[in-house]
Amino acid sequence: MRPRLEAPRPTCVRDEQSEDEAAIRIVHERAFGQPDEADLVDALRLGGYVKVSLVAEADGQVVGHILFTDLPIQTDAVVIPALALAPMGVLPEYQRQGLGSALIGSGLESCHDRGYQAVVVLGHPNYYPRFGFSAELARQIESPYAGEAFMATELVPGCLDGVKGRVTYAAPFQEL
Fold first, then answer.
1. Helix, strand or coil, per DSSP, at residue 15
2. Virtual CA dihedral for 110, 64, 16, 166, nearest 10 degrees?
3. Which of 125, 173, 176 has the alpha carbon at shortest distance from 151?
4. Largest CA distance in the chain
5. What is residue 51's three-state secondary structure?
6. Residue 109: predicted pLDDT
7. Sheet holding 141-142, edge to edge
8. Strand extents, DSSP E, 34-174
9. DSSP string for 85-116
10. What are phi and psi of 8, to 5 degrees?
11. CB-based contacts of 126: which residues, under 8 Å, 6+ apart?
12. From residue 9, how far is each of 3, 72, 93, 133 by CA, in Å?
């Protein structure tokens, strides 16, 4: 069995720059083994839906990416400023080393700092709860998705208490 080489730790997590676009595309194509997620990122960026987009770098190379897009929660009384987390990708040789966790932690902090109250994700139910995501918090949010993989987290404690609402994902999500 060949020993696994230790990949360098990220030197930083930062906002995406326009010159990162090609590297971000490669991250998603390699992370998911297909172009769909990379195409989604491009379409969301082109449509103006992106609110937070961060990259992780190691040795000056983009090795991970996370994207948050507008996903307001509409209730009968108010609109809760929320975002959708999707997609997140890390180059295969950098996976299982904490890069995804670093991207999610920095991403949630950035979303909070920009005034958003909640984040919704359709993701692995054994992974995202460690960041505060809960299917229970999302249960009263009407969406094209449901079940244990559809989760939400509060960036402002209590903002989803008793909330019954609905979300509409940006058009590029529906074209997947």
1. strand
2. -50
3. 125
4. 60
5. strand
6. 97
7. 79-80, 73-74, 165-166, 141-142
8. 50-58, 61-70, 73-74, 79-80, 82-90, 118-122, 141-142, 150-154, 165-166
9. EEEEEE-GGGTTSSHHHHHHHHHHHHHHHTT-
10. -65, 150
11. none
12. 18, 34, 12, 25
Alpha-carbon distance 127 to 120, whole Å?
14
Residue 5, pLDDT above cutoff 90: no
Residues 54-96: pLDDT tens digits?
Answer: 999 998 899 999 999 999 999 999 999 999 999 999 999 999 9
Instruction: For the chain, list the domains and their CATH numbers.
Output: 12-171 (3.40.630.30)
Q: pTM for this one?
A: 0.91
- Structure tokens that stand for 118 in this block: 């909640």
Q: What are phi and psi of 141, to 5 degrees?
A: -100, 115
Rg (CA), the chain: 16
Cis peptide, bond prior to residue 172, ω within 30 of zero: no
Tokens of 7: 């990949």
Q: For residues 55 and 13, is the Cβ–Cβ distance under 8 A?
A: yes
